[in-house]
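---------- Forwarded message ----------

FYI, see the Oxidoreductase record below. Original note from H. follows.
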Amino acid sequence: MKSAMTGSPLRVAIIGAGQVADKVHASYYCTREDLELVAVCDSRLSQAGTLAEKYGNPQVWDDVQAMLQAVKPDIVSVCSPNRFHYEHTMQALNAGCHVMCEKPPAMTPEEALEMRNTARRMGKVLAYDFHHRFALDTQLLRDRVMAGALGEIYVTNARALRRCGVPGWGVFTNKQLQGGGPLIDIGIHMLDAAMYVLGFPAVKGVTAHSFQKIGTRKHSGQFGEWDPTTYTVEDALFGTIEFHNGGILRLETSFALNIPEQSIMNVNFCGDRAGATLFPAQIYTDRDGELEVLMQREKADDNRHFRSMEAFVNHVKGDAVTIADAEQGVVLQQLVAALYQSAETGMYVEL
């Protein structure tokens, strides 16, 4: 990159000026002197202007291709709705930019695969903001798992559940624009965290069941109001992923489900030597009928978004740090698609 070679700050542009662009991407980029936020692009020019005004008044655009050609950024954050992740990421990669894309990678596995192949062809970094894997808890537990502390892990339970947490903003209840509901929005986060800790074992197949029982009847909850007449996503999905090594991963995810807890975002691992909980990280076993805690963090790390963005930028600058890369993005997109396919058809889906 020319700017990196000359020592000048890397030029950053953001596509999509919503909440995550503000709270995560722009706020992180502006903490670094080796980065310069030069453009914000959104189909709603006023929205782009509001975000730009908050972060030093970079240029404001409503046309992605025109912005890329004129501004020539080194780094692009894609924070647009799910339906546009593929289009905007491909435009940025083909313009010679490194890309940090919000989850999910795309709407289909085929799109995610083409995004990966384009990043490879262009020699650019493509990362996804699966930030839960960047918690200190996740890193610590993965190291212990890889070292064999749990033995053979044969059952993993990943849960991303809300009692009534339908997002009252954005397009989260629109299947056409979002691709789905809680699975593709919050379930994919715990799925990534679980797969990362396990080392992304090869998948044999999946089964799943989804339900739409509450979102079309209620209209308000923890995160505001929504229109039940335009609610086209699932309330909840329950799936089982079968690995070639004989283990299984059970995934439970919901926007609305009658449970006592307002929210559950966690993963449990059961091995033949010990078990573990992800947040906060804890490893335990049984000793003659009594629980023996082998390792425990008192509080879960909540600086995950910062660490995710930091890893991406440092990787772009040449540091050998782990990112949620394009290859793993393809795997996760394949799993999401297979879970939805199984839920819709009632069939076992082989991978």
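H. also flagged this: The two ends are 38 Å apart (CA to CA).
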